[in-house]
Amino acid sequence: MIDLTPRRLLLLDHYADGEDARHFTLRIEQPQAADLAATPGQFFMLVLPGYGEAPFTYVSTPDEQGVFSALIRRMGALTTALFALENGAVLGYRGPFGTGWPLFFKAQRVLAVAGGCGLAPLAGVIEAATRQPEPTQISLVYGARHAGTQVLARERNRWQQQMAVIETFDQARAGEREGSPLQHFDELFAAGVPDVLLCCGPEALMLAAAEECLRRGMAAESIWLSVERRMHCGVGLCGHCYVGSSYACVDGPTYRYDQYLKLLAHRPQFSAGVAPLSC
Ligand SMILES: Cc1cc2nc3c(=O)[nH]c(=O)nc-3n(C[C@H](O)[C@H](O)[C@H](O)COP(=O)(O)OP(=O)(O)OC[C@H]3O[C@@H](n4cnc5c(N)ncnc54)[C@H](O)[C@@H]3O)c2cc1C
Ligand code: FES
């Protein structure tokens, strides 16, 4: 039987990390084996008494004490109430849910493409890749509207010492790179075609990045997207998150590009359709 009962979650710490975004450190009071086995790209439901629950991605997955982190942008009632809480507040937790990024560490060259808050689901996999011994190399191209909207400042500062990071801006200041992440693919592909693309951000960016990688010689089987949908139950019961005939909360949010296109092509009439996140 599926248990939908939330478990106790403590708010340990939070700090501002980008425009209207905060970085939260949380602790599951009694972590279970499934929590410790959570992988980057999976998500959890955060329950705020009086406001309901909402899905968020792990930036770092739970450690043995149940401590993990999440990057959360203020959107509506739940996130506004969350931002007003003090450290020590008691929340609820369900998870981990969904399918995370594939284990790709046999790949030599990994390209990560992120837009806006889409960097959050990629953070765990980037951290893991930077800890891998050679020959795995990961590079990141991260697009944001302007510098104020960038998230995960502390992580990006660290990654800049460890890997190739290109940051692009719709509204660039002097000395910054202007334009979309795609405009910098020549540079990223100069050393050769990556083995794997991992991509998360607005749907239009992900689809364009996937097409550009195909055009430059990558196989559709090597391209992975994190496609978020409206979610309620998180466990394949309510049907709010259909991608074609699949449940994004169970089969996704990470999809292989060729499989994702097939699902979209066979989308039933009642499907909710594409609902890109605004952050
Ligand atoms: C798998 C998954 C992982 C997510 N991870 C993160 C994360 O790491 N960090 C983060 O900040 N946000 C994340 N989100 C989005 C987050 O769940 C919503 O922003 C949150 O539900 C907002 O709750 P709210 O009550 O504050 O706002 P609401 O009042 O629920 O929403 C505010 C606005 O956002 C829109 N909205 C809310 N959820 C979605 C959605 N799924 N798709 C499209 N539009 C939506 C609403 O229509 C409304 O316009 C994730 C969503 C999913 C499905
Ligand atoms: S969120 Fe309920 S089925 Fe996916």
From TrEMBL:
Keywords: 2Fe-2S, FAD, Flavoprotein, Iron, Iron-sulfur, Metal-binding. GO terms for biological process: pyrimidine nucleotide biosynthetic process. Its cofactor is [2Fe-2S] cluster; FAD. GO terms for molecular function: 2 iron, 2 sulfur cluster binding; flavin adenine dinucleotide binding; metal ion binding; oxidoreductase activity. Coiled coil: none annotated. It holds the Pfam family DHODB_Fe-S_bind. [2Fe-2S] cluster binds at C233, C238, C241, C249. It comes from the Bacteria. The keyword Iron applies. Gene3D superfamilies: Nucleotide-binding domain of ferredoxin-NADP reductase (FNR) module, Translation factors. FAD binds at L71, I72, R73. Residues 4-103 form the FAD-binding FR-type domain. Binds 1 [2Fe-2S] cluster per subunit. This is NAD(P)H-flavin reductase. The lineage of its organism: Bacteria, Pseudomonadati, Pseudomonadota, Gammaproteobacteria, Pseudomonadales.
